Each structure stands twice: as structure tokens, then as C-alpha cells.
């Protein structure tokens, strides 16, 4: 079994275990977030030993050359000595310029950075908890690159360290350390006639709100179907904004969905999986975006694939909730 050396201490890595899992099992805490090789919060550097190629997927060539790797994806094949990635230059400060309650559990936060961030609508940024270096969370961008601020929709999680801080303690004028943008869930104009299906559960609307407006701005010609699902109407938001956008865009249909109670005007009541299955039996040729609750996203992606959508045309937000 490979031996992992970190800060002059040795830890035995079980067969098939990642370095991140190994260190966490030994109660050694290092920064991490998505645990799926996307957010890059757990990036480390190999001092000795070679990280496997799959642990370096998605990293810039310059980082690969310097033996950086993602701890959550690294299943070592030999003994390794590792160190934390010096991310001091990757982080920057952003000022909170607006904080608005959108519904009973979601707050909108708008941030402004000193220099304009280069990103695509629908990507995500990482936020570091001010007093806890290893507490990093990822949030999707609802804003467009040409807008002056970065827009985030934050859902309060009952035991969420970061979400409760952002809801209760963060104030306008405060500074946050952010890093990004990253992610592969965004619009590309490769087929302007392709029909698009968008499904957002809860704050899964955030990236879709950016992607949708980006597609319209780039004059996408195919029909776009946006479904926003919640347990009840109180959990929805941006209803008026999206209805106005749909009224102004003939190719866009916006359908708010609720599991319990009456749906808003033009919406549907029922399980979102059943609604999609009834309304979209044949998705061959569609481009699909699914964002929100991880379990629901997985089920919806499976349905969309079985209904004919190509896996290469299905995009999703990969993040789970961390207490």
C-alpha cells in the first residue's frame, strides 16, 4: 500500500483510496469542496513521486509540469510526498455590493472585483470562509461576463457553515476571498438551431439564469424550454423576471413547477421527473442543462439520455452540499 508523506508525517493509503480520502481518514484536514475533480480546491503538489495522469485532468499545462494534482482524484500508485498548493496568487478579494433576500431560503449576493473576471455564464467560483482556511465552497454564477458584478444565489443549508455565514453575518461592504471561474456547464454557439432543455431545482436556477441569457444574447435560434422546480411556490424565485423574458423571447418557454400546492400561473404541479417525462418523451438532438440537487440531477440526466439526448449534449452542475 502506498505511503503518503505530508508535513513530515506518514499515512498509509488503502488500495483504491484517494489522497484526499486518506488524509481525511487520518483526521488531517486540507482544503476541498466538490470532491469530483472540478473545483480544484484540493489541489496539491507532489514533492516526490508521480501523480497518476487522471489526477491532473483539467489542470493547466504549467501546473502539470510542476507536479500539481487534485487530491480528490489521486489514487497513488507509489509512495508520494505531497504539499499544499500555494494558492495565494489564485485568490482575490471581492466586495459585497448587494445582498437581497429572494425567498424564504435563498439570498442573492452581488460581488465586485478590482479587475474584471474572465468567465462564461454558468461557471462557478470558490469562496473561502474568512476565519477557516480549509472551509471552501463553490457557487455558480448567475451573472453575465459583461455585467459589472458577479451574481450568486445562496441557499441556506441547516448545518451549512458557509451558507449560514453568508445569510446571517455577511454585510454589504464586506470583503470575500474568491477564486475562479471554473466549470464546463455553459453555453456555446456551436449549433444555433439546436433545441435546448433547461431544468433547475432550487438554486440550480442560478447557472441556468446566466446560461439562458447568454444563449439569447448570442441569438440562439432553437427553442429553449426552462423548468424551475421547488417543493412549493414559496421556494421559487425570479418568476416575474423569467416570465418577462419569456414574453420578450418567442423561442423561450418558462415553466415553474411545484411538488406541493398550486403552481404559479403557467406552471405545473407534480414531480419534476414525471413532468419532464410527460412533456419531453423524445430528446434526440436536444442540448440539456440540469442543475440543482445532486440526486435529482443524476436521475434527470439518466431520463434525458434514455429519452434520446446524447451524453455529450448533457451538461450539469456537479456540486453536492457539504455540512
Task: Please give a structural write-up.
- This protein folds into 3 domains: 3-84, Beta-grasp domain (Ubiquitin-like (UB roll)); 92-182, Translation factors (Elongation Factor Tu (Ef-tu), domain 3); 196-316, Rossmann fold (3-Layer(aba) Sandwich).
- The chain has 7 helices and 17 strands.
- The protein has helices at residues 19-25, 61-65, 161-168, 205-217, 239-248, 272-279, 294-306; strands at 3-6, 9-12, 43-48, 68-70, 80-84, 92-101, 106-113, 124-128, 136-140, 150-155, 175-182, 196-201, 224-230, 252-258, 268-269, 287-291, 314-316.
- The strands form 3 sheets. The protein has a 6-stranded antiparallel sheet with strand order 9-8-11-6-7-10. The protein has a 6-stranded parallel sheet with strand order 15-14-13-12-16-17, with helices on both faces. A 5-stranded mixed sheet has the order 2-1-5-3-4.
- The chain is globular and about 60 Å long.
- The protein starts with a strand and ends in a 7-residue tail after the last strand.
Amino acid at each position: 500500500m502506498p505511503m503518503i508523506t505530508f508535513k513530515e508525517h506518514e499515512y498509509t493509503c488503502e488500495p483504491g483510496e484517494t489522497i484526499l480520502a486518506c488524509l481525511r481518514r487520518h483526521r488531517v484536514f486540507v482544503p476541498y469542496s466538490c470532491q469530483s475533480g472540478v473545483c480544484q480546491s484540493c489541489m496539491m503538489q507532489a514533492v516526490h513521486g508521480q501523480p497518476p495522469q487522471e489526477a491532473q485532468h483539467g489542470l493547466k499545462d504549467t501546473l502539470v509540469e510542476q507536479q500539481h494534482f487534485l487530491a480528490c482524484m489521486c489514487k497513488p500508485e507509489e509512495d508520494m510526498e505531497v504539499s499544499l498548493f500555494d494558492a495565494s496568487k489564485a485568490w482575490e478579494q471581492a466586495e459585497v455590493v448587494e445582498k437581497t433576500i429572494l425567498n424564504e431560503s435563498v439570498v442573492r449576493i452581488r460581488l465586485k472585483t478590482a479587475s474584471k473576471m474572465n468567465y462564461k455564464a454558468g461557471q462557478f467560483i470558490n469562496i473561502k470562509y474568512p476565519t477557516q482556511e480549509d472551509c471552501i465552497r463553490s457557487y455558480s454564477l448567475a451573472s453575465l461576463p459583461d455585467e459589472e458584478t458577479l451574481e450568486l444565489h445562496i441557499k441556506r443549508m441547516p448545518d451549512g457553515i458557509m451558507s449560514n455565514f453568508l445569510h446571517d453575518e455577511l454585510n454589504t461592504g464586506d470583503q470575500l476571498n474568491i477564486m475562479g471561474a471554473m466549470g464546463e456547464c455553459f453555453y456555446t454557439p456551436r449549433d444555433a438551431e439546436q433545441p435546448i432543455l433547461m431544468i433547475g431545482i432550487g438554486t440550480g436556477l442560478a447557472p441556468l439564469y446566466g446560461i439562458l441569457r447568454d444563449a439569447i444574447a448570442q441569438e440562439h435560434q432553437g427553442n429553449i424550454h426552462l423548468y424551475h422546480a421547488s417543493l412549493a411556490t414559496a421556494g421559487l424565485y425570479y418568476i416575474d423576471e423569467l416570465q418577462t423574458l419569456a414574453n420578450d423571447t418567442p423561442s423561450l418557454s418558462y415553466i415553474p413547477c411545484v411538488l406541493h400546492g398550486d403552481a404559479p400561473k403557467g406552471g405545473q404541479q407534480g414531480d419534476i421527473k414525471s413532468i419532464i417525462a410527460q412533456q419531453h418523451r423524445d430528446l434526440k438532438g436536444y442540448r440539456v442543462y440540469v442543475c440543482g440537487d445532486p440526486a435529482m440531477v443524476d436521475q434527470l440526466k439518466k431520463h434525458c439520455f434514455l429519452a434520446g439526448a446524447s451524453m455529450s449534449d448533457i451538461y450539469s452542475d456537479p456540486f453536492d452540499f457539504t455540512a
